[in-house]
Amino acid sequence: MKVLHVAAEIFPLVKTGGLADVVGALPQALISAGADVRLLLPGLPAIADAVLHPRTIYEFGPIFGAARVSLRLARMPYSHVPVYVVDAPYLYRRPGGPYQAADGAEWSDNLQRFALLGWVAAHLAAGELDLGWTPQILHAHDWHAAMACAYMAAHPATTAASVFTVHNLAFQGLFSHADFGQLGLPAHFMHSHGLEYHGQLSFMKAGLKYARRITTVSPTYAGEIATHEFGCGLDGVIRGRQADVSGILNGVDAAVWNPATDSGLASPYDAADLGGKARCKAALQAECGLASRADTPLFGVVSRLSSQKGLDLVLAALPMLLASGGQLVLQGSGDAELERAFQAAARAHPAQIAVRIGYDEAFAHRLIAGADVIMVPSRFEPCGLTQLYGLRYGTLPLVRRVGGLADTVVDASEQNLREARATGFVFGPANAAALESAMVSALTLFGRPDEWRTVMRTAMARDFSWAEAGGHYLSLYRSLLPA
Ligand code: ADP
Ligand code: GLC
């Protein structure tokens, strides 16, 4: 089965969040299961300059404002997955992030940048750009790739079926209605049954309206996005496609996240030898200048600092954390006010709180290995990967009962402890009191080391593998192939 994955980011080359981890790992899992998978990515410098053996397979005339666009076929570094790169220097070759400039402002030409990605994808799927390879399934990720579904629907020669995965409904790719003409689509696409969204133009809707199937990254989130509370204004559209929407839980890339083989750790470890984890904790405390104490519970956070992630609740719970004698290490960046508030807390309590602002993949591994608890108190969370990494590293997740967090963490209630099912701490309402009561549960269990270790081992034995997720995607793809 030939499958083309279209996305804007991929670990380890370009990453703003979990989407990159998924796009890095899922194609490899599908290939291991026997599928013929290729990627299509924008020629951002970190991608275009890193791929192996690129060769030009198609040259386009001027398009979407770019004078020169070519399609190159190459291999990904490390994984060697075949990858098509859209080389369009005018649109993609610039410093800064994939969606924003370094100052956080959205690129003003994102409409052209991501319309081009979708347009090339659709023409590849129609068999026009690479005579040697035509996908049967085009799998588009998030709004950045969603226009592929609209262009496929507009293309008479397309035989491939489209799958659209929503990784986060809050980011929608909204543009001015007036820009519709630049997309080169028939007028009826700019309708409330199409891309039109309250007078604007929505790339997310291109995926939700025109994909044959819609998936999201956990079963609970698949249900949530059909509700007013979590639908980000698109719940009606989702309800209209209910029969075509499903949730497939993300996996963990065991080649990247495995405490037994993680070469960046002070001491790799596994469930049979938790001594290594204690050494990772001591090393983290030393690295962060925290008091060096094995008997102090160490809470960790690795996160974008945005309202989605609920870190204002952690801020509100800091007095309680400090009074309990616990420690916190936070790694993150985003909202300037949250950054300042956490930094101020660290300055005031350097033996108990350490804060690193910025993005640092290697430190994220050391933090997740060294902490006792990883906190993910999100307001909404489509899947969430950090709690999965926490489980694997025996770092018990403390999460809100929402989205993929609800699907992956089992609360350490007395009953779940008795049944040896508990893997973490789960709270309900999005307020500091509820978070604090989950922290009290964590502190209490931490005081019962034998039980804590049992929960750690249960957590580490949970298997959120890409092989399983890949199997679900393959069945979905098969259901779309002509009989
Ligand atoms: P989201 O994609 O919504 O940010 P996920 O939990 O799915 O949330 O994925 C976040 C990914 O980004 C994880 O791999 C996490 O380790 C990583 N991450 C987030 N913030 C940072 C940071 N400041 N430094 C390093 N890695 C980070
Ligand atoms: C999004 C979501 C996150 C999910 C990730 C990968 O960034 O916010 O919950 O884990 O995509 O699917």
Taken from the alpha-carbon principal axes, the silhouette is globular
Tell me the count of domains. 2
Major beta sheet, specifics? 9 strands, mixed
CATH architecture tag of the largest domain: 3-Layer(aba) Sandwich
Could you characterize what this model shows?
- With 483 residues, the chain is an alpha/beta fold.
- The protein has two domains: 2-251 and 467-480, 3-Layer(aba) Sandwich (Rossmann fold), CATH 3.40.50; 275-462, Glycogen Phosphorylase B (Rossmann fold), CATH 3.40.50.
- Helix content is 38%, strand content 19%.
- The chain is built from 19 helices and 18 strands.
- The chain has helices at 18-32, 45-48, 89-92, 110-125, 142-154, 203-210, 219-224, 235-240, 275-288, 311-316, 318-324, 336-348, 361-370, 386-392, 403-408, 414-418, 432-446, 449-461, 466-480; strands spanning 2-6, 36-42, 52-60, 69-75, 82-87, 137-141, 161-166, 174-176, 196-197, 200-202, 213-216, 245-247, 298-305, 327-334, 353-357, 373-376, 396-400, 425-427.
- A nine-stranded mixed β-sheet has the order 3-4-5-2-1-6-7-11-12, sandwiched between helices. It has a six-stranded parallel β-sheet with strand order 15-14-13-16-17-18, sandwiched between helices.
- Helix 1 (18-32) links the parallel strand 1 and strand 2 (36-42).
- Helix 9 crosses helix 13.
- The radius of gyration is 23 Å and the shape is globular.
- It starts with a strand and ends with a helix.
- Bound molecules: adenosine-5'-diphosphate and alpha-D-glucopyranose.
- Residues 17-19, 22, 167-168, 217, 250, 381-385, 404 line the site of alpha-D-glucopyranose.
